Amino acid sequence: MSRNLLIPGLLLVLFVTFGIPGTVSAERISDLVDNSVWEQAKRILSLKDPTVRIALTGCLLLGVCCGLLGSIIVVRQFALAGDTLAHAVLPGIALGYLWAMEKSPIHLFIGAIIAGVIGSVVVSLIQQTTRLKRDTSLGIVLGGFYAIGIVLVSMVQNHMPGDAGGLKSFLFGKAAAMTEIDLVLIATITGISLVIFLLFFGQLKVVSFDATFARSIGISERFYHYLLMLLLAWAVVSALQAVGVVLVSAMLVIPASTAYLLTDRLHWMVVFSVIIGMIVSTVGVFISFLGPGLPTGPFIVLTAASVFSIVFIAAPRHGRIAKWWSRRKQSHQIRRENVLKAIYHLQEADDFENEWVGLSELIGKRKKRQEEVLHEIDLLDKKDLVEWDREGERLRFEGAGLQRAKEIVRNHRLWELYLTNKANIAPDHVHDDAEKIEHILGEDLVREMEKSLEDTEVDPHGKEIPTVR
Question: Which site in 128, 219, 252, 400 is 20 to 30 Å from 370, CA atoms measured?
């Protein structure tokens, strides 16, 4: 995990590059200027506007923070927790305003954190003291706390003077309204989350993948659960100004889910999640600057959703195209191996006296149309697994064809023997299962089956199990 220490360096570069400019307040970034799209693009790329620098720096830090924590909650299948905490902090924001009687970021932050922690505790209490499952507990707290928050915010807006009306902005976010105090809070939360994440990454990893094992080696699952909930509450509060209560869970879940499709290793998932979070934040800020009336938060989330859609389709291993291609290759492999097996069965029925097998015999064995069987033979011929005599309409094994045919037949019959002897399944009920498993049994598993079986010379039907080199 030490390689991920490049993230703090990246954060330092961001602060050096963008700085912490003076306070500017606006509904949206693009409300500050009124130029053409091209002029707007040049303004944001030049980073001359203080509001742009604040919004961009804040959203980049948000991408880092949400990317880190989102990776853990996605792996733990705890994605709804972010949404619950996002809605649970709304009462705290209203109470924080009542505490200071103004929109003080510090008071709002403290109120939101307290509300978020109370919400996470209530979820745990409901789950531990009732028969209700985790998702039900989260749903109850989400709806209940959000309703309380809406009531409090409406009461504050209707009866309190000053800038209380701005509290409603926390529902959908106003990145352009960030101040330098907001930026300091986001930077502080991101820094603390990063330090804690690096210090306790190993423990969080073990707890996320195997809580039982974690408890067996002395790691307190409950402690790290509440630590994660506290960090999530911080992340949610830091994201409210940028994307709001409604969309903050998307920033926690979507970049991490995208990274999940790109790798099978958690440390790389964290790195990819952080990078994706930063990229979508930058693009969302840029798009919202291009024209009037374009909100920053929704465009950040839409960009994240677009990136997820691309990865969902085109990810190297887990994308839909890759899975389709893998299934297609596996289908062709199974068809080729089934033909090899059929040729072996035909030769076996003839006591291996004739190595040539006629096309008509093979068609009868395969129980398929002639065109399909000819296509399968062509596939084998291209792989140099059979010799195809077109004029004589016959074929025989060539190269590694016989060896692979023996392996498939051996896998099939060993599996039948294993199910019959070890699982006590009747011999006439094991064929269909063996038909499916014969193509995917690895060499190691075959060796283990051989060791566990006393006699591997004949299968349950009395047929010889071929030996392979």
Answer: 400
Q: Which residues contact 225 (CB under 8 A, 6 or more apart)?
A: 124, 207
* Signed CA dihedral, 436, 441, 446, 448: sign only: negative
**DSSP string covering 326-346, please?**
HHHHHHHHHHHHHHHHHHHHH
CB 172 within 8 A of CB 158: no
Assess contact for 176 and 32: CB atoms under 8 A.
yes
Q: Which two tokens stand for residue 101?
A: 């009687």
CATH topology of domain 2-315: ABC transporter involved in vitamin B12 uptake, BtuC (1.10.3470)
Pick the CATH number of 404-452 from 1.10.60.10, 1.20.58.480, 3.40.50.10490, 1.20.1250.20: 1.10.60.10
Name the CATH code of domain 322-399 (choices 1.10.10.10, 3.40.630.30, 3.30.565.10, 3.30.450.20): 1.10.10.10
pTM of the model: 0.73
Query: How do strand 386-389 and strand 394-397 relate by DSSP bridges?
Result: antiparallel
